[in-house]
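#struct-help
A.M.: can someone run this one for me? Single chain, 70 residues.
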Amino acid sequence: SILLYTDGCSERLDQTGQEYGLDRLSKMLCEDPDTSPRPLLERGLRHLDKFAQGSAPIDDVTLMAIQRIH
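D.P.: on it. Structure tokens below:
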């Protein structure tokens, strides 16, 4: 799967003002690189919500996953 995301994902802040960042996003993707789109999106949103610890997003949070079907 290919994951497309808006900057609202990588720039999502936790309660201390720390950004989620590209490193965390990359690590989340590497947990299971063969994941199909729906579970990948669900895992991504869970990670973002857990990181934010209840802080509201200050920008749009959009994820889109694409998978080639043979």
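A.M.: thanks! The CA atoms of residues 3 and 65 lie 4 Å apart.
D.P.: also worth noting: The longest strand covers residues 2-5.
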